[in-house]
Amino acid sequence: MTDSIKELQAEAEAFRDERNWKQFHTPKDLAISISLEAAELLEVFQWSGTDMQVTEKQNKVKEELADVLLYCFLMASAENLDIAEIMTEKLAANRRKYPVEKAYGSAKKYTEL
Amino acid sequence: MTDSIKELQAEAEAFRDERNWKQFHTPKDLAISISLEAAELLEVFQWSGTDMQVTEKQNKVKEELADVLLYCFLMASAENLDIAEIMTEKLAANRRKYPVEKAYGSAKKYTEL
Amino acid sequence: MTDSIKELQAEAEAFRDERNWKQFHTPKDLAISISLEAAELLEVFQWSGTDMQVTEKQNKVKEELADVLLYCFLMASAENLDIAEIMTEKLAANRRKYPVEKAYGSAKKYTEL
Amino acid sequence: MTDSIKELQAEAEAFRDERNWKQFHTPKDLAISISLEAAELLEVFQWSGTDMQVTEKQNKVKEELADVLLYCFLMASAENLDIAEIMTEKLAANRRKYPVEKAYGSAKKYTEL
Questions:
Q1: Given pLDDT bands bounded at 50, 70 and 90, which one contains residue D53?
Q2: In the B/C pair of chains, how many CB contacts fall below 8 A?
Q3: What is the pLDDT of residue D50?
Q4: Which neighbouring-strand residues pair with D4?
Q5: How far apart are CA D98 and CA D96, in angstroms?
Q6: Of the residues A87, A103, C33, D29, which has the fewest C-beta atoms closer than 10 A?
Q7: Chain C partners within 8 Å of A37 (Cβ)
């Protein structure tokens, strides 16, 4: 099993290109698809009330989370973004927005800290 | 810059744990957060009509896509899922659902192929 | 205060037309906007864990729910749909999908009943 | 066919209460359901590219739009909100945020006007 982002991204691109689907992958339609897959993931928890674990549905979680990730990787391909780079940059930005001394143990948004 | 999924995931977990946020990371609330970040990514394309490129907003795309990815990585952590494994399995399942000879150049859903 | 759907819809259309915004109201972009406003409504409940009431945020709920409704009314206008009619028809369809004797007290999806 | 919001809302509540579903209708789970139905509406336009009309799918639009509206009405019931009132107030607020002389013919967000 690879642990390489670039290898996984290349596999997703190969899947897309074997089917000649790049023509459909506008950033707008990819953003829609990411939202739709995120909704399918969220659907697992619909009406679960306070039952936050939903253990019996882990297979569904696996599949839908993988779908969100695959479309995110393909969005990065469509926009020529380096996945590891944008994630690392965002973590750095979040560290500045949520300094440990203010954010420790708090679920507040940075605008309310 | 790392290319390792596990290293990036460990960095996201460290960010979370330094702030003592694991307590909030129920799968249900993480699924909500993935959906909300996906919506912020989609917002870049609101009212863009047929203008599918939206080049002037690439910084926003970068940041919001990174947010979706970070929450997906943290959902995998909360659910003890191996990211590379679930993506590889899902690609294999998609290959079966969308065989090249049927899916080539078609944007139809597998249920309509 | 009116109780008429058609009057409220006409007010929403007047708001749109005074600003010459009908040109942007493609069904696709309206569907995106409905999703984005739904996400803003959902954001009120982000990280609320099992605290399902979130009473202190009722103003935000009011505003975001109204936004979803306004875009739904404008989608109906763009697609020439009669709001009361489609809601009445959908309730009738749901009554068939969820017969009382099967669905009573159950949160299951009709496909699982 | 009624044109009354309160009558339609009462019908939606009757549907809910005949099935003893009020127990599931926490605001958080209703907000999730509104988001999920909004995603199903948006799915009609997935991969439609610049083809904004999607005329062949109007039945699906009808059904999914009706679902979003029904959950919005039930959210109003759960939160004791007057639908006509919150829509009228939001239209008034939007008139202030988007004055005609600034917003005419522009798709910009009020923060960018």
A1: low
A2: 41
A3: 58
A4: C4
A5: 6
A6: A103
A7: none
pLDDT of residue B54: 56
Which 3 state secondary structure label does DSSP give B4? strand
Work out the number of other CB atoms within 10 angstroms of the CB of residue B70.
Answer: 24
Please indicate whether, in this complex, the C-beta atoms of B3 and A84 are within 8 angstroms of each other.
Answer: yes
DSSP state of D108: -
Cα D105 to Cα B74: distance, rounded to the nearest angstrom: 42
At B63 the three-state DSSP class reads helix
Nearest to B47 among D35, D52, D107 (CB): D107
Q: Which residue has the tokens 């979680």?
A: A61
Residue A53 pLDDT greater than 60, yes or no: no
Beta partners for B4?
A: A4
- Give residue A102's pLDDT band: very low, low, confident or very high (50, 70, 90): very high
Residue A4 CA from chain centroid, whole number: 16
Distance CA C26, CA C15 (A): 17
Phi, psi of A100 (to 5 degrees): -50, -45
Residues C12-38 have a mean pLDDT of 96
Structure tokens at B24: 């909030």
- Chain B residues with CB under 8 Å of a chain D CB are 32, 35, 47, 49-50, 52, 107
Q: pLDDT band at D51, cuts 50/70/90?
A: low
- Using an 8 Å Cβ cutoff, are C44 and C57 in contact? yes
**Is the Cβ pair C107, A32 closer than 8 Å?**
no
CB–CB of A50 and C47 under 8 A? Answer: no
Contacts of A80 in chain B (CB under 8 A): none
pLDDT of residue C55 exceeding 80: no
Q: Between vectors from CA D52 to CA D34 and to CA A13, what angle results, nearest 5°?
A: 85
d(CA B36, CA C39): 6
Q: Which residues contact A92 (CB under 8 A, 6 or more apart)?
A: none
Per-residue three-class SS string for chain C: CCCEHHHHHHHHHHHHHHCCCHHHCCHHHHHHHHHHHHHHHHHCCCCCCCCCCCHHHHHHHHHHHHHHHHHHHHHHHHCCCCHHHHHHHHHHHHHHHCCHHHHCCCCCCHHHC
- Chain D neighbors of A40, CB-CB under 8 A: 39
Can you give the C-alpha Rg of chain D in angstroms?
17
Q: How far is A49 from chain D (nearest CA, A)?
A: 7
Does the pLDDT of residue B45 top 80, yes or no?
A: yes
